[in-house]
Specification:
Layout lengths: L1 E8 L7 H9 L8 E7 L2 E7 L13 E2 L5 E9 L2 H8 L10 H12 L9 E9 L4 E6 L8 E4 L3 E5 L2 H4 L10 H10 L13 E3 L4 E6 L2 E6 L15 H15 L6 E4 L4 H12 L7 E5 L10 H4 L8 E5 L3 H15 L8 H11 L5 E3 L4 H5 L5 H11 L3 H15 L3 H10 L2 H8 L8 H7 L5 H5 L5 H11 L1 H14 L3 E3 L5 H8 L14 H7 L5 H4 L11 H4 L3 H11 L2 H5 L5 H12 L6 H18 L1
Helix pairs in contact: 2-3, 6-20, 6-21, 10-19, 12-14
């Protein structure tokens, strides 16, 4: 796990080492163990290394092919590098135990087709010194980042946006993305970022730079992998899941698990302990005290006596007040909620004990973990005229959850997209009316995310347009503390097999993640296997924003000249709303966070 940077000058000017140095310095946290630079005429690569596989200097990057023709910088892990190395060893000599050397040989052997062989998370760039072409690629689901800026003079890329910014003459906000952030809580749903001119390479895509021309192509299309519905037995699912865990335990450094108490991370812990007999496992959890509704310690405690080393962090108003400035800085772009702060603290804790963590990200999107997925399932049952089953599922849902949310989501999916935009958006009272009117017809968030024909299509839409913002938070939270976070549920074999199953293997008798529960029921603690609620990244944020420290800070912020003049919020209404929040009449903590996050982001990255 590392950080990569690069500059390609289109006017044949030699790349300045000082520019590469400045880019690397902005993300040294991604690679504190080693660094390297390659500059050849108008091409420059920079690299910072977090040593995970082969801790020796043999894993140094930029790395050269044995004939010195190719130069690679690579961020991430290709977990099946041992198997690929076996396939190539008859033709190539390997001098290290790193996956980077295998990737480079694979590219020499198969060209761009090598990507299909990789099981992992990666962003890479390879320079062909003979043709002077550059090949860059990103993994299937966007687990590892690749940002770039391109104009007539240059192409600049990096693992983090903050590494690109010092090289730009002008930094401008992207109001279209800010609108989607404020109204729909969405980020990372397109190639655009919060910065005008800075884009991300789409997941499952590669780009080539040849003769000063940049072309991008999709190399992985999930829709092609889930064409036919096919039942997957719990035993088959368990085998795939276990193999994914096995690959992601490959490391030459200590490995731990982020344990939330939810079913996803619990499945990982149970598999690591029971299937691989790693009894001295380290787990890391965020707790808030059993009196808090957001606390999950009663489920985390199910592993006491099973897991040897359990570590806890307790985020609170004071810690968040002290951390939120660095939290915003670490994320480069605004985040819609402060939920990821819990993960930020978990990674900080983990960094004291391990270098690699496993995390449950991606299970919800393939196993229908969110309750609004019930609405799309009901829609599917109606279209298939399975009315008895629809009635039964409704009854099960009402009994198990005592809620009408599933029905509400069903009716929402029946609405035309124009009405979905009105219903699905959250127009905070403090949002400036003129800003709202300027962009209210431009957003395509609901069309991308909430217009499914059936449950599987909605899950696919989430993989294409929603999952990546969670993966960005995962990457930035972990790498800020020099931690490599691995996500076993996003093994492409597991994703493809699960998304190809019929809907009733995901939702069954009012219960989400049915296949996962059945596959691991023999090793999961009973209390966790039968959980019906989902808390996600929750915290007592409404209380935090009522503390004296925060109230003083927030009032100063929303009455500042810069906040008033940006044109996104109405300061007078913000003051009225915040006063109601302080008095406990309303909970507008989401709105408050967006005031703080967006304003601080401007001050840090734009002004």
């Amino acid at each position: 796990m590392c950080g990569i940077t690069g500059i390609v000058n289109f006017k044949n000017q030699k790349v300045q080492k000082s520019k590469i140095d400045s880019m690397m310095a902005q993300m040294k946290h991604r690679g504190p163990d080693d660094e390297g630079i390659f500059i050849e005429d108008s091409i420059g690569f920079g690299f910072v290394r977090l040593s995970i596989l082969d801790l020796s200097p043999a894993g140094h990057q930029p790395m050269f092919s044995h004939d010195d023709r190719y130069v690679i910088i690579f961020n991430g892990e290709v977990y099946n590098y041992i198997e690929i190395r076996e396939e190539l060893k008859h033709k190539y000599t390997f001098n290290s135990g790193s996956d980077t050397e295998v990737i480079l040989a694979a590219y020499q052997e198969w060209g761009e087709a090598c990507l299909e062989k990789f099981n992992g998370m990666f962003a890479l760039a390879i320079y062909d010194r003979e043709t002077q072409d550059i090949f860059a690629a990103r993994d299937r689901f966007g687990i590892k980042p690749f940002y770039y800026y391109s104009d007539d003079d240059q192409f600049i890329f990096a693992s983090e946006i903050k590494s690109i910014l010092p090289l730009l003459d002008k930094k401008e906000p992207n109001d279209k993305i800010i609108f989607d952030y404020l109204l729909f809580n969405r980020t990372d749903h397109s190639e655009e970022t919060f910065f005008k001119g800075i884009k991300k390479l789409n997941h499952g895509s590669f780009l080539k730079i040849s003769n000063q021309k940049v072309t991008e192509k999709k190399w992985y299309d999930l829709s092609e992998k889930i064409v036919k519905e096919k039942n997957l037995s719990p035993e088959e699912y368990r085998k795939l899941f276990k193999d994914s865990i096995k690959l992601r335990l490959r490391a030459d450094v200590p490995v731990g698990v982020s344990l939330s108490g939810g079913i996803d991370s619990s499945c990982i812990v149970s598999s690591v302990v029971e299937d691989f007999q790693l009894k001295d496992l380290n787990t890391f959890s965020a707790v808030y005290g059993k009196s808090e509704t957001s606390d999950e310690s009663e489920y985390i405690d199910e592993y006491k006596g099973i897991v040897k080393n359990m570590f806890y962090t307790t985020p609170d108003a004071e810690s968040f007040f002290n951390d939120f400035d660095s939290f915003i800085d670490a994320h480069n772009e605004p985040v819609p909620d402060i939920g990821p702060y819990a993960q930020f603290k978990v990674m900080e804790l983990a960094s004291e004990h391990v270098t690699v963590t496993l995390d449950g990200q991606g299970a919800d999107e393939q196993l229908a973990g969110y309750h609004y997925f019930f609405g799309s399932y009901y829609l599917e049952l109606i279209k298939k005229m399975k009315l008895i089953k629809l009635f039964q599922e409704n009854v099960y849902y009402l009994k198990k959850h005592n809620s009408l949310n599933a029905i509400k989501f069903f009716f929402y999916y029946l609405l035309p997209s124009s009405l979905q935009n009105k219903v699905g958006s959250q127009k905070f009272p403090s949002i400036n009316e003129s800003f709202f009117n300027r962009y209210k017809r431009s957003s395509d968030v609901n069309k991308k995310l909430y217009s499914p024909k059936n449950l599987n299509q909605l899950l696919f839409q989430h993989f294409e347009y929603k999952l990546e913002h969670l993966l960005r938070w995962e990457d930035l939270n972990s790498m800020h503390f020099s931690i490599e976070s691995r996500v076993p549920f996003l093994d492409h074999r597991l994703v493809e097999a699960t998304l190809s199953t019929p809907s009733d293997q995901k939702i069954h008798k009012g219960e989400t993640k049915h296949l996962l529960r059945k596959a691991l029921e023999d090793i999961l603690p009973h209390k966790i296997a039968n959980r019906k609620d989902k808390k996600g990244f929750s915290n007592p944020r409404e209380k935090w924003f009522r503390t004296k420290e925060f109230s003083t800070y927030i009032l100063e912020l929303i009455n500042s000249d810069s906040f008033k003049e940006r044109g996104y919020f109405n300061s007078k209404i913000a003051n009225i709303q915040y006063q109601k929040h302080l008095e406990g009449k309303v909970d507008i903590s989401k709105e408050i966070w967006k005031w703080v996050n967006l304003e601080l982001w401007f001050r840090k990255f734009i002004d």
